[in-house]
Every structure is written in structure tokens, then in C-alpha cells.
């Protein structure tokens, strides 16, 4: 009886742990250069790494028809769980976003950029974005799809004692957020503090590290070659992953925008496994 009870406890523990743990995936933009040369071969590489969940990187179906692309994904046991959409598409044609996302059988859509002039980002651009995201997000929500916005650093400018991002989060009625830890740390923000401040608003995460000694800015601009193997840079990756687990972020996507991504991604995967 003691053996049976102990076995039941062990099984329950592993089931609970599996449900609590995030899926580690990949943002396909990381391999944009490799996809240009060999789409099937690049998917085979992702499969070899053991990655099954990915986020679309704004490159559509890489020149394939939707059916051909889906067949390629299926062949390599890869699922697009998060699709992408431009600000303009969400504003002008949310129906096409819904169609594409349903085609992938994904449940998230992410927008990565709010249009603005040069480095100027104010409450005017923020209010416009809120209108577009709330209206599109409401339509997507009816289809069982969650819209998320991915900040890039220019949203941290001060506004009424807080930041424009605080204002956006507090007025987001029909959309959520994807945290890119690089683009929170690069402008001087603490990703862990933001996760604790808004534990229910970040549903997805991009995880990438920054070379030590790099100074950032609030312009959403940086040298992609400062992306380094996770755990070797100046961002507290271990602490962020721990906090993300506590609040139940569902998918953590490795994103490495550097020219070394093909070599660095497997090392970053090993680091995350070590955690």
C-alpha cells in the first residue's frame, strides 16, 4: 500500500510539474537567413533540436502555398502556436489575420511594432495603437484567438508619473502582451519587476540575452550582433524564467537575431534545460 501511495504521489508530481512548466519554442525570425536558402532543411534542423512549438516571424509561408507549408510543418512535427500580424493588417484587415491564424490552428497572434516617426513615440501613437489593438483583439477573441503586443522599448517613455506602457497595459481591454526580455532590459527596465507588476498580462515571452557592457536606449534600436547565448550575457535569464514559471507564461520562445543564431540556439537550449 505504501508503494502504491508513493507511486501515486510521484505520478501526480510529474503531471503537475508538466502542466506548470512552459513550452520552450523558437521565434522563426531567428533563422530568417537560413530560411532564404533552404526552407525544408531549416525545419529539419529545428526538428533535430527537439523544438516543436514555434512563433511565425512575419515571413508568411516562405513562398509556399498554405497547404504546402502546413504539410512541411507536419512532416517535421512543428506547430505554429503563435502567428504574427502587422499593425496595418490588424487595422485594415483583421479578417485575414483570423483566417491565417485558424489555418495554423494557432491561438495567439502577435504584433511586433507600432508605426511612428523616427524615434518619436508619444501618447498620440499610444492612443491610436490602443484603438487598433482593442478593436482587432475583440474580433479575434470571438474566434478564440488572443492578440498580444510585443513592446520594443520606445513604450517606456514617461507619462503621468508612469510610462506609456503602463498606460497601454491599463487600457488594454481586448489584448494582452508578449514580453521580449531583451527589449525590456535594453532600455534599462527590469523584466522581473514588470512581470510582478502585471502578473496576468504577459502571456508569451521572447527570451534572448545581451552582450555584457552594452548600453541601451528607448528607441527600439540595437545591434543584433549583441545577442549572445542565453546565460552568458548581462540579463538575468535564470531569474526571469523562474518568475515566468510562477505566473504561468505558456510559451517562451528563444529569439536570436544575430548572424550566429544557428550556432547559438542549441547552446541556449542546453542552458534552459540546465535550469
Which descriptor suits the 3D outline?
Answer: globular
Which structural class best describes the helix and strand composition?
A: alpha/beta
- Beta-strand percentage? 15-25%
In helices, the fraction of residues equals: 40-55%
Computed CA radius of gyration, to the nearest angstrom: 19 Å
- The count of β-strands is 12
Concise overview:
With 275 residues, this protein is an alpha/beta fold.
How does the SSE layout of this entry go?
Blueprint: H1 2-20, E1 23-27, H2 32-37, H3 39-48, E2 53-55, H4 66-75, E3 79-84, H5 87-92, H6 94-104, E4 108-111, H7 123-142, E5 146-149, E6 158-159, E7 162-163, H8 164-170, E8 176-180, H9 181-185, H10 191-197, E9 202-207, E10 209-210, E11 227-228, H11 237-247, E12 251-254, H12 261-274
Parallel strand pairs: 1-2, 1-12, 2-3, 3-4, 4-5, 5-8, 8-9, 9-12
Antiparallel strand pairs: 6-7, 10-11
What do you see in this structure?
This protein is α/β, with parallel strands linked by helices. The chain has one domain (22-274): Alpha-Beta Barrel (TIM Barrel), CATH 3.20.20.150. Helix content is 46%, strand content 16%. The strands form 3 sheets. An 8-stranded parallel barrel has the order 1-2-3-4-5-8-9-12.
Which descriptors apply to this entry?
275 residues; alpha/beta; TIM Barrel; 8-stranded parallel barrel; two-stranded antiparallel sheet; 46% helix; globular; disordered N terminus
Amino acid at each position: 500500500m505504501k508503494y502504491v501511495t508513493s507511486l501515486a504521489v510521484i505520478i501526480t508530481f510529474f503531471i503537475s510539474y508538466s502542466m506548470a512548466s512552459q513550452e520552450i519554442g523558437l521565434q522563426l525570425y531567428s533563422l530568417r537567413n537560413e530560411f532564404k536558402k533552404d526552407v525544408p532543411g531549416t525545419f529539419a534542423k529545428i526538428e533535430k533540436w527537439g523544438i516543436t512549438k514555434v512563433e511565425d516571424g512575419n515571413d508568411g509561408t516562405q513562398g509556399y502555398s498554405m497547404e504546402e507549408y502546413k504539410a512541411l510543418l507536419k512532416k517535421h512535427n512543428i506547430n505554429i502556436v503563435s502567428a504574427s500580424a502587422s499593425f496595418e493588417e490588424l487595422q485594415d484587415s483583421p479578417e485575414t489575420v483570423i483566417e491565417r491564424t485558424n489555418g495554423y490552428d494557432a491561438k495567439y497572434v502577435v504584433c511586433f511594432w507600432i508605426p511612428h516617426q523616427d524615434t518619436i513615440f508619444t501618447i498620440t501613437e499610444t492612443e491610436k495603437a490602443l484603438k487598433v489593438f482593442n478593436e482587432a483583439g475583440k474580433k479575434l477573441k470571438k474566434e478564440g484567438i488572443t492578440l498580444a503586443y510585443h513592446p520594443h522599448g520606445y513604450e517606456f517613455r514617461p507619462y503621468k508619473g508612469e510610462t506609456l506602457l503602463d498606460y497601454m497595459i491599463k487600457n488594454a481591454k481586448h489584448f494582452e502582451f508578449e514580453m521580449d526580455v531583451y527589449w525590456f532590459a535594453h532600455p534599462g527596465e527590469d523584466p522581473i519587476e514588470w512581470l510582478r507588476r502585471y502578473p496576468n498580462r504577459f502571456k508569451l515571452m521572447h527570451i534572448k540575452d545581451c552582450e555584457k557592457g552594452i548600453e541601451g536606449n528607448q528607441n527600439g534600436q540595437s545591434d543584433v550582433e549583441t545577442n549572445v547565448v542565453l546565460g552568458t550575457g548581462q540579463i538575468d535569464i535564470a531569474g526571469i524564467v523562474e518568475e515566468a514559471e510562477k505566473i504561468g507564461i505558456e510559451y517562451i520562445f528563444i529569439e536570436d537575431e544575430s548572424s550566429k543564431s544557428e550556432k547559438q540556439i542549441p547552446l541556449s537550449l542546453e542552458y534552459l534545460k540546465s535550469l
